[in-house]
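[Structure tokenization] protein backbone as discrete codes
[Encoding] learned vocabulary of local backbone shapes
[Protein] chain in single-letter code, fold in tokens
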Amino acid sequence: MKLFKLNMNKTLLIIALTWLTNFAAFAQSGDVEMATGLRSSGKIWVVVLVVLTLFIGLFIYMFTLDRKIKKLEKDK
């Protein structure tokens, strides 16, 4: 059963990575009018700042959650 879970996790990871790769490649084709407008008005930096803030917050949350889990495992 453990081997099945491991293979299933690998399969799901491969499917997710394939989908993300295809999505990223599709997103880069052509010129998007909205992105051109954001670049020309300088608002693209607001979008970049918001996305960067979200990623940093997610990283900090995951880091603190990992520390708490390690502490719980060590106490057990």
Q: What stands out?
A: Helices lie at 2-27, 33-41, 44-75. The chain has two domains: 1-30, 33-76.
